Amino acid sequence: MEERLDVILDSIRDIKGKNIVRLDLRKLDDRPAEFFFICEGESTTQVRAIAENVQKRMKQELGEYTKNTTGSRPANWVCLDYFDTVVHVFYPETRAYYQIEDLWSDGVATQYETL
Q1: Are 64 and 14 in contact (CB under 8 A)?
Q2: Quick one: a GO cellular component term (predicted)?
Q3: Domain residue limits at 32
Q4: CATH number at residue 44
């Protein structure tokens, strides 16, 4: 699991994802996954690029494919479902609107600096 989380974080950072948060949901009874990664890109092109990089590296390095990928066109929000880990890549205004961190505020949040 730690290797998966590291690859996801590094994949987001590769494309200069901003405001990266990992939510540990394992102690919640009604959790949809064990972990959420939430980040944002400064443009819809960057949002799409971050999501594509996560998918590419997960496939190449761990042999893992998404169970489901959803996203809007233009890419205001892309959601990558790896069953026990879900990656949300947002455009800033879309992230503010949905407030995923607030919805799952009972989880343990870890914020990461942008490198």
Answers
A1: no
A2: cytoplasm
A3: 2-112
A4: 3.30.460.10
